[in-house]
Structures are given as structure tokens and as C-alpha cells.
Amino acid sequence: MRALLERPLYPLVPLPPALEKDVIRMIQIGLSGCNGRMGQVVTRMAASSQKLRVSVGIDVNSVKLSDYPVFASVNELTETPDVLVDFSNPASLPGLLSYGLAHRVPLVLCTTGLSEEQVNAVKEASASLPIFRSGNMSLGINLVMELLQKAGQVLSDGYDVEIIERHHNQKIDAPSGTALMLADAVSSVLPYDPVYTYDRHSVRQKRDPKEIGIHSVRGGTIVGEHEVIFAGPDEVIEIKHTAYSREVFAAGALNAAEFMAGVAKPGLYTMADVVRAKQRL
Question: Which domain holds residue 179?
């Protein structure tokens, strides 16, 4: 029985040459950071897509691990992809922005840990180029952000906000980009300007009511956990998101790539734009 269930429902038969011209052209993705953990998950998931394919990779480790060519630099590309997806390192950002602007290729920036200067560079480039940027590619996290805004409006008076994020022991940046996204979502609806507090051990004083505490845990192989706590008089409300697989983020990146490949208008796009586009279908 198991063998029968594992068989494809329909045999994969090559299309006759006469019909090949009617096949919709697949979106060609250039994948920056293709040999990293997330890059390999994106590669694996794209291989089963009927709409997208990774046609070229960029990685400082330019060894070929999949069925597409890999270059050490974006400037070495011999063919122009429809969209560039980045899961690499903040150091790659200047080259990606320059390439995108020079070749009019939309960017999907999934790398976290960008400096304030780099974020400003992205905003500046988005005036001339369609750029997607998100601190987290999960659709669930973006739903959590909406819930936090509603909670923040109701619980703005007398409730302390604390955020705890947990990731694997190989993650470099702290706090996570997602934790900052969640903090921004809450602060956007508060009647005051909160102060983000990352470390209290060196200060002996009571908690400032206008703080949002952000705490980072690094250990093991935790893919990603984010917990937002609203602690008030005699009650605590917790909103939590847990990612059990990197495929959650890869799926979001591919959704964003498909969306951005059809965007011509310059601007800075987010997962909210992708969600709205899907709702219109």
C-alpha cells in the first residue's frame, strides 16, 4: 500500500515538440547565497515548482552543488535572471544593489542583520528599482504582526511588552531581524515612543514602563521561535510563533520572487504586498 501511495498520480511524460511553445515560460531566479543552508532549501523547493527555477547561483564558495552554474560574484553572471533572491550576507548587499540597478532586475532581500546605513541604501535604491525586503519570509509571522498591532492598541496602558527570540547556535546577528519587526509592529500603535532595551544586567533600576525588552537565545538547532509577552496587572497575554523547518522561509521567498518578477514599478515591497496580491487572485 505504501508503495502505491508514493507513486505519482500521473506519469511525467515529456511534452511533444509541437506543444512546447505553449508552455508558460518559467521565472528565472538568480540565487545569492545558493550554497548556504537556506540557499539549498530554496533550491530544493524551486526544483518542484511549475512556475520558477533557479537558473544561476552566486556564492563565495562557488562550488557547483546543484544543476545550475555558480559564480563567486554577481558581476560574473553571463545571463540576466528575472529576479535576484538573496540569502547570503550583508556584505553582499552593495554588489546586489548595483547589479539590480544596472540590469533592471528586481531584488528579493531575505538577509537579516543589515546596518542602518545599508537599510538606507536599500531605501534609496528602491526609488529606481523594485525591491522586496523582509526580516522574516514566513506568512505566519506577518499574520502575527497584525495580531500584535491589535493587541498593542488594546493593551497600551499598563502592560509591559517583552520579546524573546530563540535561534540555532550558528546565527550571527542578535536580536533577530524578526524580533525587531515584531517590536516595530507593536511600537507603531503605542501612544508613546518606546525604547528598545536589549541588556539590563549593567543597569540596576526598575523597568521603564516605556521599554520594549528584546532578548536573544542561541542554542542547538532551533530554527526560529518568537514570543511576545504583554504583562499587565494580574494577567499575561502571550503571542508566539514557532518555525519547525526552513522550508517555511523558502516558500515565502519563492512567493516573493514570483510576485516581484511581475513588478515593474520601483518601490520597497513587503510580504504584506505578496499577501494582498494572492487575495486578489
Answer: 139-243
